[in-house]
Amino acid sequence: MVERTLILVKPDGVQRGLIGEVISRFERRGLKLVAMKFMLPTESILAKHYEAHINKGFYPGLVSYLTSGPVVAMVWEGWDAIKACRLTIGDTHANEAPAGTIRGDLAIHISRNIVHGSADANDAAREVPIWFSDDELISYERATELWITRPD
């Protein structure tokens, strides 16, 4: 099934110059970028995004970190995109992420793990509208799509 999912390159990924590397990994995976913006996240956006964590002890530090610099917010589309992105990203705990994943290759700490990706379809459906309006999501066809996901 074709899905859409949210990916954020967090401030550590931006500061380390890894935006292109992250994008390249998803493109090589066969996913299609349908929205992207370079932005400073507001506390309001983060409160919506991390609503389930607002009363947890780590939340103030998380907000401080994510507002410390720009992020790149993206929506990727493709066949089983959520699972494909999660596999490409690797485990949340960078030291447990396998080699070949973004976190396994490039991160070493749980709180500076380069990217965020929607955990499942429910999270993706909730998160994408927090960061993007419908008119910012671009539907288009790429010539490579038939070579990546041939219709049965």
Explained architecture:
With 152 residues, this protein is an alpha+beta fold. It has a single domain (2-140), classed as Nucleoside diphosphate kinase-like domain (Alpha-Beta Plaits). It has a 4-stranded antiparallel sheet with strand order 2-3-1-4. The protein is globular. The mean pLDDT is 95. It has 8 helices and 4 strands. It is 39% helix and 18% strand.
Question: Gyration radius, to the nearest Å?
Answer: 15 Å
| Total beta strands | 4
Helix and strand content put the structural class at alpha+beta
The CATH architecture can be given as: 2-Layer Sandwich
- Structure annotation, total helices: 8
The CATH class name reads Alpha Beta
* Morphology call: globular
Low-confidence stretches: none
Can you list the strand order of the major beta sheet? 2-3-1-4
CATH superfamily: Nucleoside diphosphate kinase-like domain
**Roughly what percent helix?**
25-40%
End-to-end separation:
12 Å
The description of the largest β-sheet is: 4 strands, antiparallel
How much of the sequence is in beta strands?
15-25%
What string gives the helices and strands in order?
EHHEHHEHHEHH
**The CATH topology is what?**
Alpha-Beta Plaits
> Mean pLDDT across all residues, rounded?
95
Structure keywords:
39% helix, single chain, 8 helices, alpha+beta, 152 residues
